[in-house]
Amino acid sequence: MDADAYEDYRRAIHDPATVHAMCEDHRAGLGVDREHDEADRTAARRIGCPLQLLWPTSDDMVDLYGDVLSDWRDWAGDRLDGDPIASVHHIVEEAPEVLTTALLEFWRSTP
Question: Which residues share a beta bridge with 82?
Fold first, then answer.
């Protein structure tokens, strides 16, 4: 993460509302989001649009989930693409050019 992005992050985390929102986002992933996912799985709902997953190589995604794409195959519609991106956690700040290229290639190849 470059110095400007890091300073923006440091400023944001000194705002209690920002910290609260960050915690609620993580909490939802373990609670209500998971409940909704299970309801969708039970109802055999699938994602109707092309789906692209991009994840950092040096984060814990593979440790937590193994084959990252495999968790999404049952959810995805006709098209599931994805690749790891060399970064630690903040892909947007750590590998913006690689991320932009991956997104543009996916969008351009999607009818």
Answer: 53
- Dihedral sign for Cα 77, 72, 70, 34, please: negative
- 107 is written with which tokens? 């969008």
Tell me the per-residue pLDDT of 25-64, one tens digit each, with 9 for 90 and over.
989 988 999 999 899 989 999 998 999 999 999 988 888 8
pLDDT tens, position by position, 13-25: 999 999 999 999 9
DSSP β-ladder status, 80-85 and 51-56: parallel
Please state the three-class secondary structure of the chain as a single string: CCHHHHHHHHHHCCCHHHHHHHHHHHHHHHCHHHHHHHHHHHCCCCCCCCEEEEEECCCCHHHHHCCCCHHHHCCCCCCEEEEEECCCCCHHHHCHHHHHHHHHHHHHCCC
Question: Among residues 81, 83, 76, which one has the least CA distance to residue 99?
Answer: 83
pTM score, two decimals? 0.77
